[in-house]
Structure formats: C-alpha cells, structure tokens
Fold:
Amino acid sequence: MRPSHLVGGKTMKTTIPKEELVYSGHLACQGCGATLAMRYTLKALGQNTVYSVPACCWSVIDGPFPYTSLQIPLFHTAFETAASMASGIQAGFAIRGKGDINVVAWAGDGGTVDIGIQALSGMVERGDNVLYICYDNEAYMNTGIQRSGSTPVGAWTTTTPPPHFKKSPKKDMVAIMVAHHIPYTATGNIAYPEDWIKKVNKAKEIVGPKYLQILASCPPGWKHSSEISIEVVRLATSTRKWPLYEVENGNYKFTRMTRKFVPVSEFLKLQGRFRHLTEEEIDVIQLLVEEHWADLCAKAGIENQFADKLEGYTEKVKKHHPQWFHIEED
Amino acid sequence: MRKVITGNHTVSYAAKITRSEVVAAYPITPQTQVVEKISSFCADGEMDAIFIKVESEHSACAACIGASAAGARAFTATSSQGLALMHEMLHWAANARTPIVIANINRAMGPPWSIWTDQNDSLSQRDTGWIHYYCEGNQDVLDSIIQAFKVSETVSVPSLVILDAFFLSHTSEPVDLRDQKLVDKFLPKYEAKWKLDPKDPHTYGGLTGPDRYYELRYNLQKDFLRVEKVMDKVHQEFKELFGREYGRVEPFMADDAEILLVVSGTISSTAKQAVVDAREAGLKLGSLKIRVFRPFPFDLVKKYLKGKKAIAVIDRNYSFGGEGIFYSEVKSAMYDEPHLPIYSYIAGLGGRDVAVKDILAIANLAKEGKCDHPTWWGVKL
Structure:
C-alpha cells in the first residue's frame, strides 16, 4: 500500500476491505472488468471461500499451471457445470461439518445464461447453499467475442457482424432467478464497488441459493480503450441500461436511483461494438431501456420519473422502425 | 444378513454399506429403484448422506466430482443415455483424479428407444480413464462396489460398476449384505489425498500447456498399471474378511477346456450352464468371464487362452465399422499367439435373450471353425 503522504496526506475512506486475495501477475487484459469483479468479490467474501469455475475468461486469468493468482482454492470445471459442481462441493463440505465455507460458482455470461442455465436452474430450485456469481461481459470473450444470450441488442460480435448485428434482446437472468423464488438476487457493476460489496456481504449471510450478476467491461470485446473501462460501465448504470437493484424474497429494490436523464447513446458511443448503429436503431435501444426501467419501477412499487420518455420513444420507434416490434435475428 | 433383493436394490444397499456421503443422481429406467431406495435410506436416517436430486446425469456426475474434491465419498447410479450424457464429466472425474464410483445399468442406446440390456453404453466410455467392472450376479454387484471404492481411493482413479438391465437390475437373488463392522474394517472412512481447503488454497485443473499435460496423462496410466496389483491385493483381503473369492477374470472349467468361451455380464452365468451341458455331451468346453474390463487383464487372458483349440468371444455390443469390442481386446492380448483361432460372435443386443442353447450352438460353431467374423448369432434377416 502507498503511504498516505505520497498522495497528498489524505486518503479517501471507503467501506471496501483492504484485504487482497487477488495477486498481481494474473493474465487478464488491460482494463479487464472481470478481474476487478473478482477482486471486489473476494474482498467481501474473505479467505474461507472455495470457487467452482467453468470455462470462461477466469479459466485463463488465474494463470497457467502451476501458477495461481488467487488466495482461495479454485476448482476448474466443465463449461456447463459451475452450479452443479458447486452443489457437490457444498454437499461434500456440509457432510464433513464444514458447511460454513462460502461455496461460490463463478462463471461468465455464456456459462451462465446459455450452456450453464440448466445446472443453475436445478441448483436454485433445489435450494442449495451456493452463491452463484455471473460476471457479465456480454459475449463469449475468452473464445474471441462470439455472441451469447447475454449480448445486448445492437452489438457487434464476431458471430453477429453488421448488418447482422445482435437483433434479439439480452436474456434477463435476474428475472429468471426471481421466477425460481430465489431468496436473493441482485445486479452489480464494477464501477460501483461499495454497492457490490454490500450485496456480496448480504448474499454471504443468506443460507440457500443466491444469484448475483455483475456487469464487467471488456476492452477487447466492447472495443474501447482500456483506460475508460470504468467510465464505460458507469455510463451503463447512469443511462439506466444496467440498473442496480436487488430482489430479496421477491421484493424489488433499487440500490442506486437515477434522477437525471442521460441518453443511452452516451454509453454506446464509447464502444466500437455499437459504432455501426444508426440514430433510429439507437432509439430502439433507448426504448428497450425505458421498457425495462418502467417494468422495474412497477415491480419496486415506485413512480417512474421517466414515463414521458417511455411514451416518447414508443411513438418514435413505431414511426421509424415498426419492424422492431417483430424482432427476428437474421 | 442375507436378503432376497433385486440388482437395483443391491446397488442401493452398496451405497449405504460403503457409507457413501454424497449421492447425486437422476432417474432413468432401469436404474430408478436404485435412487428411490437411496432416497428412503436418507429420509429415514438409515444412511448419513446428502442426496442431491440433480436435474440431469451431467450434473449428477459433476456434483459427485465436486463432493469428492471436497473430501467426501461420492456415489451415483445411471444407465445408457444417462451415462452418455455424463461422458464429458467421466473424463473430468478421471483426469481430476476423483475416486468416485458409479453403478451403470447396461441398457441399449437409442434410437429406437430400448430399455433392455446391451453393453454399448458402458463400452463407449472405455477410454475415459475409469476402472470398469462387469457383474454377473447381485452378490457380485454388492461386492464389486465395496471393492471398487477401496481400489479407486487407493489409486485415485474412479470406477464404473456395470450390471445388465433387467437380467440383474430387476431380478431378485439372495445377497449377503455383509456385516457393517466388517465393511467398515475393509473400507475405512475416506481420507482424500488432496482436497479443496481454504486453509491450504490450491488451484485444480488450471490451464496446462503441452510442456506439462503429457506427463499428467502418463501419470494416470502409471497409476492404472498399479491398479491390477492393488486389485489383486484387495481381492485377497476381501477373501480373508468375507470368505468370497474374486479375480479380475473368472475361469470356469477352463484349464482342461479345448474350446473356451470369453464372456461378460449375465451371459457369464448362462455360459457356465452351457459348459456343464457341453461337457455332458462330450465337448470339452470352458469359459472365461472378463470381470474387469479396464484395466484389461491382458496377463490373465493370455494365461487362460494359451494352448486352446479355439476361442469364441461373445459380444453383447458392437463397434460399428469395427468389430465386437471384447473381441478386439482379446485379439490384442493374444497377438503373440498367431495360430490360435479366435472367433467373434455377436449376441443379445437390445436385450435379446441369449439362452444356454444359443451358447452351445456358438460353441459348436467355434469347434467346427465356423465364423463369419463376426457371426451375428440369431439375427433375423
């Protein structure tokens, strides 16, 4: 740690624990959001933790055998088994009287919303005491930026090249988890570590299945420079494209409220993966933001301050882009 | 305690008596009674285990691997399509060196749907790095599962214990369920050689380059070479404690036989009757049951087949575009005996009955040197 006098004699006070369980020397790309997600998560969880990690960027980031960059045991597993492997690990600990260990399934978005969704669904339905965390960089980044079910509308990937960019909406995994009657689920964003750590701490205390999804920027996949990684994801939340909220026993609650309208184009324009989009297409994305926001406000039982935007963009899109109401992927 | 029970319930009792701590299973015909009984054992507190009712066999195998990695003894049972779905995780279990045991009820692969016995499900898993036991009777099922845990945990290689659909799974036989104290003496509580432990954190299965992966697989094979010795020792210990004798193969009137049948699974007991009948009719027939298929008992097959007039391998399986799978293995074992005629007979696929008369007819074909390489015995054309 840097002595405080070197940074002007003052340090900012945060609730982020100082303990570091991610070492330097890992293999992440510059500006990797998934690495920050891991770092903050382990700060909250502490050392009494075991990870089940399927194929994902973290299969590589941790380091090649015999190296590791984590201070906790990590069991690498097959792509679709983050949840089922974690269930088994948890049971193995529980039967030996070590049920207090935090068992975490740590997977990317493809491993969660696509190939791993069955095992995750089973784990949550059974009520296994596992914390499932999806670090969401919105495509199969480790294999070279192919679209996943978590890739947003409009995005370029290597398998959705314009004009055949992603036409179907991002899978709403949190809603899917709520439909499982999960005790606790929440969204997170690496640009808001204190919010995230609170959520991980809360999840840690709950016995049963927990699902958290943290948006993690990916400079090579999102096509932005690495030094604006935090700026980009922060805009995801301030434009309400990735709202921060939690659902506890079915009760929705925003953990960060947005009052000021920031158009989603502010988020999109920083990233090469959206550069092909026309103004009209961006309007469609704005409409999806408004629809999701309105839905969340209704669920949280609060007034939607952006109701006029929903109305305005509905009219706009209907006029310019009627086909968007019958979305089909090319 | 002797009890008249089905092969399926024998598997359930085996899970209980081996004190399996985590069972993760998914139902499939004809295995369902295995998991039903284990469920009630767990519910009644007769078995101190956690039963994870997973949503697929793929997850069942993954959960068993996880439990084993956490240091617990893990068990599951499946069949056919279920085993095929596990395939990826079978490799994972073996390569992660987790000593789990799976009972597989041999059932034909679809389509068309079939629930009857056939070995193609388990033989398709030949190269996954597991020990394979083929069982002849229900007592064999119980004892093989007890032994399998001991062998697996000694060498850190998982085991597949295989029994025929319906001919064993749903057939009741008297089974000596063993004294729990004796089983505990034979198979003490599992002490993992390595396990997931936050106090001693390690990463398992991380990315490994060509400079190291090769050696890891060499080490697995090196341990497989130890399996035979470990098994022979375990069989000896088992005999001393329980009074029942097992080997990697089982010869039946083989020593003085001129024609030798090579068989596996329930066909083995039918073959024994055929041998007795043939002897009465003046044909010097014998049989050799392959009980352990992996590691393949090359030494014992050589020993028993050497000097015979003819060998008839009966395969309840087929490698399409190839040949009977046991036949391939037996030929490979007898490479140094080029003048020994080894004939291949396919029989009983999809649960078609293989009766004593069928085996006698096959033996007579072999005696006369008649074989179409292979002969699909009884196929209706």
In short: Residues 101 and 159 of chain B are 5 Å apart (CA to CA). The two ends of chain B are 49 Å apart (CA to CA).
